[in-house]
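Researcher: Here's the sequence for the chain we discussed earlier.
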Amino acid sequence: MNSTATSADSQTENIAARLQRLAIGGLFAVVLLVPKVLNLRRDERSWTAFRILLGIAGAALVILPLAFWNSWLAAIAGLVLFLTGALLPSANSGTGVDDKARELGALVVVNGGKYRYPQGSGEAASAQLFVGADYIWVLGSRLQTLLTIPVSEVSSVHVEAAGDRWILRVRRTDHVEEFSYGGIFAEHFARVAESTIRGVIHSTLPILPRARAAGA
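Model: Thanks. This is the structure I predict for it:
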């Protein structure tokens, strides 16, 4: 009696240990697959084929175990796979920030706060600054171009507090562009943008020849 109970307990422990190892292995595999799946989603054909295969595999796990060896665990896993394949979103063909930066040739992307057009019409738009060696692109939340500033036109850049906000002013040849930052990290974001723009401005300044010492 005791030996039978002990044998049953050991079998239960072995099954539990196997399930635990399978769960850990499956979780590890999912972690490794996530970046590949995200890259796959950028290609519409590959992403559609992946969803179809996932649905077929799920349907097979639901039908075959019930027909041959009556494994309800496999059927549940198959149902999960099938529903996952059916409910996954469509391919993401949009352009990301990194892709846009490469497209424009930007060196750094920084927070642009809120940008208001010089004429002051309409609400301020959320902006990101794509800073390149020759141009500074001001892009909106959907990565649409709001403004393009040639670096050669920028004469100065300055940050100052204005009430509970921080204002970044980029002075150009004929006018000043303003970017407003709010929140607890407002000063930090404004000063990061300021230092980034100053970096590209200084890199384009001409290097003057050093004057000779008197009597040389």
